[in-house]
């Protein structure tokens, strides 16, 4: 029997709707279509859906040229995505995934409209990266069928999806949403509905502490990037990654998390980044951010001082580890999901809780206590879980 609000994850006959035809929405539509679902793509902006459908055709054709897809597969994916001109065309869908602007009021109105349109057993999902799933679900008479499915950009390539139940979301929907994402070929992790979920919460010190090190005059940006790449094995340094993401986007997320955590110093934004945004130096998309990305720009030579590089690296990693330990202490996600999220979502060289085992909880604690003693800031307070692990000489794995 098909129960109310029950997902059948392996049934690719379920019709899926995606609202929002930007880069993220069209990417999610492609993922669902690749998994065999008929997909309806809708956007209230005039011409947005037709443009996205045309861009997707070109993307699929390039994949065929490169030998990644057969022509039959590409044609099938494109053919399973139907542009919609009106919201009412989504009425027969078993799942609707919203990927529109990060504005709570707009999302809540959309979900209220959707609830009146789709069947009682349709699941409503939000791709929000910074808003409360519970708050969005609050617009619905049946909030138990609302769930967060946070894909990472670009959705067809990035393996991670954060599955975020709201307070009222039923356990069946959570379980089946996890299974559905895995059926779509994704690495699914479950996390609490708290600011930043896993990745945008745990990753904040990667940027924030790098900015602090620069502001203190310890090293220039090129050296800080070089330190985390050469010592830690990160694929990109924090400054080049912020330039890639966009300083406006990264700064907005930082502010959002800081405010959502009631101004906890751990998540404090940086004036340096604010000035970058105010000056229009947003990164690669504007040609200038922390680095000059113009065609003939000379690259900055980093320092190769081994002691300096290790010191910078150790400080940033200690803050990341502390954030992961605190997320585990507060049951934001399981140990395995926390580590999986950071390796699959932001391509960290290893899970942070595995990393603390390699370094040793006592050593990580010592680094944090030294920073807190030096600066006298609550920002560097060690997680009580990390203190306990060090005291009891335990490891996370």
Description:
This protein is α/β, with parallel strands linked by helices. It has 2 domains: 16-190, Rossmann fold, CATH 3.40.50; 201-391, N-(1-d-carboxylethyl)-l-norvaline Dehydrogenase, domain 2. The protein is 49% helix and 9% strand. The chain contains 17 helices and 8 strands. An 8-stranded mixed sheet has the order 3-2-1-4-5-6-7-8, sandwiched between helices. Helix 8 (204-215) packs antiparallel against helix 13, helix 13 (306-329) packs across helix 15 and helix 16 packs across helix 17 (384-391). The longest helix has 24 residues, at 306-329.
Named CATH topology of the largest domain: N-(1-d-carboxylethyl)-l-norvaline Dehydrogenase, domain 2
CATH class of the largest domain: Mainly Alpha
Estimated share of beta-strand residues: 5-15%
List low-confidence stretches: none
Biggest sheet strand line-up = 3-2-1-4-5-6-7-8
Number of strands: 8
Mean pLDDT: 95
> Major β-sheet, in short?
8 strands, mixed
Head-to-tail CA distance between termini: 41 Å
Alpha plus pi helix count: 17
Task: Spell the H/E element sequence.
Answer: EHEHHEEHEHEEHEHHHHHHHHHHH
Helical content, roughly?
40-55%
Q: How many distinct domains? A: 2
**Under the CATH scheme, which architecture of the largest domain would be assigned?**
Orthogonal Bundle
């Amino acid at each position: 029997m098909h129960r109310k609000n029950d997902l059948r994850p392996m049934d690719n006959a379920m019709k899926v709707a995606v609202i929002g035809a930007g880069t993220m929405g069209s990417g999610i539509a492609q993922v669902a279509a690749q998994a065999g679902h008929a997909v309806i793509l809708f956007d209230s902006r005039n011409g947005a859906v037709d443009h996205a459908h045309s861009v997707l055709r070109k993307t699929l054709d390039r994949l065929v040229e490169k030998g990644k897809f057969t022509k039959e597969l590409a044609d099938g994916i494109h053919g399973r995505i139907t542009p919609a001109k009106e919201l009412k065309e989504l009425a027969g869908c078993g799942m609707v995934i919203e990927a529109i602007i990060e504005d709570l009021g707009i999302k809540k109105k959309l979900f209220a409209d959707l609830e009146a349109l789709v069947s009682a057993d349709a699941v409503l999902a939000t791709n929000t990266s910074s808003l409360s799933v519970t708050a969005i679900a609050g617009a619905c008479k049946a909030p138990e069928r609302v769930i967060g499915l946070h894909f990472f950009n670009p959705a067809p390539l990035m393996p991670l999806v954060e599955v975020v139940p709201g307070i009222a979301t039923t356990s069946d929907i959570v379980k089946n949403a996890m299974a559905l994402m895995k059926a779509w070929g994704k690495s699914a992790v479950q996390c609490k509905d708290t600011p930043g979920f896993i990745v945008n919460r745990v990753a904040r010190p990667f940027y924030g502490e790098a900015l602090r090190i620069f502001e203190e005059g310890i090293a220039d940006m090129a050296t800080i990037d070089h330190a985390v790449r050469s010592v830690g094995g990160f694929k990109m340094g924090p400054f080049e990654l912020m330039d890639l993401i966009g300083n406006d986007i990264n700064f907005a997320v930082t502010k959002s998390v800081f405010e959502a955590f009631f101004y906890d110093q751990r998540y404090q934004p940086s004036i340096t980044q604010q000035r970058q945004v105010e000056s229009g130096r947003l990164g690669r998309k504007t040609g200038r951010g922390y680095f000059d990305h113009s065609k003939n720009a000379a690259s900055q030579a980093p320092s190769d001082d081994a002691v300096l590089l290790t010191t910078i690296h150790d400080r940033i990693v200690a803050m990341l580890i502390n954030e992961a330990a605190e997320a585990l202490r507060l049951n934001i996600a399981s140990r395995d999901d926390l580590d999986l999220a950071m390796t699959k979502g932001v391509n960290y060289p290893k899970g942070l809780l595995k990393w603390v085992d390699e370094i040793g909880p006592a050593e990580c604690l010592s680094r944090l206590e030294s920073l807190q003693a030096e600066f006298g800031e609550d920002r560097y307070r060690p997680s009580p879980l990390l203190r306990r692990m060090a005291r009891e000489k335990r490891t996370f794995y």
